[in-house]
């Protein structure tokens, strides 16, 4: 028994030594390090509170007017301090595989500039996160916080924008809709998550993607297209998928819309006191709008107190003629019409399927359901 015990103990000792050597490789010329020393050394190289940053961007890099252009690929950049600028774009991302972490800092356009951050043609796998962009532009059509290249000729792919704040930008918070007419849509795969826009126009993209956990408050009535969250395709070309979920739009001219999408979904969204006199797609003045879409679901949404326009609406056109739309567990109150189904002039809506499940319309001025 004793001999067997020492034999087993010897095996365990050798195994422990090998295991330790695997985790704690031999240091230069010193044999195996003391365990505590090695762990302390490893932890000293890890800062769990920050990201790896290859290049910190400062005011000096931007200059008083702009622009700092990122042409490298697969590099992490971060904003090292608050920056201001007065013309053009503050930062242009022209490389792929870029992470731009604003590190809680502010990009301020001083009400004179054009774009906060611009995405170049064909960039892929880009992440922009964790900061504030404000005061971009002084008038409509001149002032977007994050925008792709105008007349885009090569699609952007896999774009992530998250944990961002936007305030007082003249035209839009996020605008990824500028594809040339030869392209089907601007971006193939976008995630916009946990962003907040105050008097900054719209969060919008053309192409398949997701907007999740965002809030838009737009109270300016002089904008040509109002504000809110818009997703889908363009020019009656269907994007593959578009999802808007867990979002809220408030103010006098904000809506939530998916148009020109195959498999569009709007869920767990609220529009409060908004959508007044906003005209988009095939319907005028709806707080939550889907159209034209082929196969769409609007579920668990609330529209309340918009006063002069409709609550939840679908616009059918020839593109969506054989599609189906499902309203599920939605509520509309204090609108003109709670739910409205509209066919564009001359559209062949025959064959479209429409389903309502556990929906409520109450205290609306004209109709609860106008089909």
Round the mean pLDDT to the nearest integer and report it.
79
Strand fraction? 35-45%
Spans where pLDDT lies below 50 across 5 or more residues: 2-9, 11-50, 277-284
What is the C-alpha radius of gyration, as a whole number of Å?
A: 26 Å
The structural class is: mainly beta
Main sheet makeup: 21 strands, parallel
Distance between the termini: 89 Å
Q: What kind of assembly state do the chains in view correspond to?
A: single chain
Q: How large is the count of helical segments? A: 3
What percentage of residues falls in helices of 4 or more residues?
A: under 10%
Task: Looking at this protein, list some descriptive labels.
globular, mainly beta, 21-stranded parallel beta sheet, 371 residues
Short description:
Helices cover 10% and strands 44% of the residues. By secondary structure, the chain is mainly beta.
How is the secondary structure organized here?
Blueprint: H1 2-23, H2 35-44, E1 55-57, H3 59-62, E2 68-70, E3 76-79, E4 83-84, E5 89-93, E6 99-101, E7 106-108, E8 115-119, E9 124-134, E10 144-148, E11 156-167, E12 172-176, E13 187-193, E14 196-198, E15 202-205, E16 209-212, E17 215-217, E18 227-232, E19 242-245, E20 248-250, E21 254-259, E22 261-267, E23 270-272, E24 279-280, E25 283-284, E26 286-290, E27 293-299, E28 302-304, E29 310-316, E30 324-328, E31 331-333, E32 337-343, E33 353-357, E34 360-362, E35 367-370
Parallel strand pairs: 1-3, 2-5, 3-6, 4-7, 5-8, 6-9, 7-9, 8-10, 9-11, 10-12, 11-13, 11-14, 12-15, 13-16, 14-17, 15-18, 16-19, 17-20, 18-21, 19-22, 20-23, 21-26, 22-27, 23-28, 26-29, 27-30, 28-31, 29-32, 30-33, 31-34, 32-35
Antiparallel strand pairs: 24-25
């Amino acid at each position: 028994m004793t001999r067997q015990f020492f034999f087993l103990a010897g095996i365990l000792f050798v195994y422990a030594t090998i295991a330790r050597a695997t985790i704690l490789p031999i240091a230069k010329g010193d044999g195996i390090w003391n365990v505590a020393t090695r762990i302390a050394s490893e932890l000293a190289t890890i800062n769990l509170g920050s990201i790896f940053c290859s290049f910190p961007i400062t005011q000096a890099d931007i200059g008083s007017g702009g622009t700092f252009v990122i042409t490298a690929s697969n590099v992490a950049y971060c904003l090292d301090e608050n920056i201001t600028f007065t013309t053009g774009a503050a930062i242009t991302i022209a490389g792929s595989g870029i992470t731009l972490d604003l590190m809680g800092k502010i990009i301020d356009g001083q009400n004179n500039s054009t774009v906060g951050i611009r995405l170049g043609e064909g960039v892929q796998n880009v992440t922009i996160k964790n900061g504030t962009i404000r005061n971009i532009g002084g008038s409509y059509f001149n002032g977007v916080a994050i925008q792709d290249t105008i007349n885009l000729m090569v699609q952007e792919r896999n774009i992530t924008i998250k944990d961002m704040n936007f305030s007082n930008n003249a035209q839009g918070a996020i605008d990824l809709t500028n594809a040339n007419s030869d392209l089907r849509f601007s971006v193939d795969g976008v995630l916009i998550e946990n962003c907040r826009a105050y008097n900054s126009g719209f969060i919008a993209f053309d192409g398949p993607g997701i907007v999740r956990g965002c809030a838009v408050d737009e109270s300016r009535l002089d904008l040509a297209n109002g504000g809110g969250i818009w997703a889908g395709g363009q020019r009656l070309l269907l994007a593959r998928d578009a999802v808007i979920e867990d979002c809220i739009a408030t103010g006098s001219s904000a809506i939530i819309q998916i148009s020109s999408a195959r498999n569009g979904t709007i869920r767990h969204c609220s529009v409060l006191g908004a959508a007044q006199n906003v005209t988009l797609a095939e319907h005028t003045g709806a707080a939550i709008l889907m159209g034209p879409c082929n196969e769409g679901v609007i579920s668990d949404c609330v529209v309340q107190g918009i006063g002069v326009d409709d609550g939840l609406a679908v616009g059918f056109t020839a593109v969506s003629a054989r599609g189906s739309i499902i309203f599920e567990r939605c509520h509309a109150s204090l609108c003109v019409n709670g739910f409205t189904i509209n066919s564009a002039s001359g559209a062949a809506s025959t064959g479209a399927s429409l389903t309502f499940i556990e929906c409520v319309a109450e205290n609306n001025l004209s109709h609860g359901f106008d089909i």
